């Protein structure tokens, strides 16, 4: 059975107000995304400085990362996706309200290997070979089948030299800082199929699908960016 994306919704902050201070639109804000969007966008701007073309974000959530990354990478077409209709509506609302020209309309994509959807084929049909697939804070709040579908789909959707880029907390050789261990325990209490993943397991999965060893970028709050070359 495929993972229900609504189960992974974060806590949201207050709705974005309308221009008159009244009721807002469909835009959602997640406190974590508000904190880390600028750092993620800056790191990706360095990693993808020489790239041009389409980049697909899997599990774009509220759309805050997509907005920040599209602004930081104007030579790339940023294609946000999410399986949750609530999030797709939020992404589109952010795009309409504040998005630059290179921020594409969101797509509904379920990367779970158990969903039966061939999102990679759809991506190539619509946008051609991708230069990168980016995914932030997804594989630890979903079952392992989502990681499997993400990596397999990225391998099929990326062009030669493209990269799969993951952001989030990881165990390394079974070790993690206390905050990440506590986070892992909380996640597994919500769903035993969730949890902070071992970097070595993710790297092995990527290797099985033809990716090379990842470039590792240290990020604030004990997170990492892992960039796997195709």
Automatic annotation (TrEMBL):
Domain of life: Bacteria
Bias (Basic and acidic residues) ranges: 1-12
Region of interest: Disordered: 1-32
A Pfam cross-reference name: DUF938
Signal peptide: none
The protein's name: DUF938 domain-containing protein
